[in-house]
Amino acid sequence: MPLFRFFLWIPLVFSAAIAQGQTDILLRCQAVVDFHVRESFPKLTYEPPIPGAWTQNAYWNAATFYTGLWDLYAYTGDSAYWAQLMRWGAREDFVPLKYDPDIANNHLAAYVWMQMAAHADTPALAAASYAELDSFMRIPYEGRTAWWWCDALFMAPPTFALASAQTGDPRYLDFMHEKWQAATEALLDPAEGLYYRDAKYIYDPADSTTHGKNGGKIFWSRGNGWVMAGIVRVLEHLPAGDPRRDYYLDLLRRMAAGVARWQGSDGLWRVSLTDSAHYPLAETSGTALFCYAYLYGIRKGYLPEEIYRPVAEKAWAGLLTYLQADGRLGHVQRVGHEPEQLDPEHTEDFGLGAFLLAAVEWMKR
Questions:
Q1: What is the largest CA-CA distance in the chain?
Q2: CB of 163 within 8 A of CB of 114?
Q3: Fewer beta carbons under 10 A from the terminal one: N or C of the chain?
Q4: Percent of the chain as helix, strand, coil, to the nearest 5
Q5: In this predicted model, what pLDDT tens digit does every residue of 331-342 receive, in sequence order?
């Protein structure tokens, strides 16, 4: 079966100028999708190459790409994008990850398949996903042990919010809100408006292991990008009259202010938000997630446009400087959990997916 139509003949010479035309942005998105189909999709297998590998199947890395692809399809209606979504889901039997059960990282793929099931009016596509969510809620997690790392707030909560929106069953939303609050109570630094990645990074003046290279607090860029993007995705599915909306709107506004102050002059953020001296290279996956969240918040009226439109525009223009003609997004930090030096040529599916999310929001603005 052929994969995708490849537009390799198009002279995709991307400039640093902000892309304004829909056609230009759609071509860039097409190049990103083609890159994934050509370079990544053939390598996804049912068994990880090594125990615990994170880049296979329907785990969070690939699922982030398909989250972006879903948004791109929902915006464009392009049947080729739908075909690739179906190809991925069918190869996984529309079943969340098979070798690491009961973890938030399984639930991002479920989000995509639940959206697809509703769109195609084919409940079977989401049957295993709902079974996984129901099973997860039966586990007697206490406090923040369900989502103990900040990345989880992108991977799982929007899926539970979507489940309530689709079924009318409040249990999913109630579960999600309780666990989100617990994670936030544990990981949010109120003074900074930023999240620690997990408990071992919470700053303690007397514990040098919690200090960054500059001696200060450690705030990982992509980790905070996951949270900020997770907030807007939860808001997308919260009913308009739900009193819990104010909680997430407040979080979004606190993060928007906390993140914006660390934006580089080139529009991008560094792997360590507060330490560009030790980590001078721009990082694109976190930047794309921030860009997406700012654009969504501005479009919905949640964030003041006069303050954050320049932030979002600088971020978008900066991202375009690292999108190569073949659809590769450079300057993506490798899979990790803290600030690390990056390879300028490295890319990942989650970086491509984050770019697609930002691109769709840019076109909606």
A1: 60
A2: yes
A3: N
A4: 55, 5, 40
A5: 999 999 999 999
Q: Delimit the domains of the chain by residue range.
A: 22-48+143-153+160-201+209-364
Q: How far apart, in whole angstroms, are the C-alpha atoms of residue 234 and residue 228?
A: 10
Q: Supply the DSSP string of 4-52, one letter for each residue.
A: ----TTS-----SSPP-SHHHHHHHHHHHHHHIIIIIGGG--SS-SSTT
User: What SS3 state is found at 67?
Assistant: helix
pTM given for the model = 0.93
pLDDT over 80 (residue 49)? no
What CATH number was assigned to the domain covering residues 22-48+143-153+160-201+209-364? 1.50.10.10
pLDDT in tens, 234-250: 999 999 999 999 999 99
Q: How many residues make up the chain in this entry? A: 365
> What single-letter DSSP state applies at residue 333?
P
**What pLDDT sits at residue 143?**
53
CA 347 to chain centre: 15
Query: Quick one: tokens of 58?
Result: 């329907």
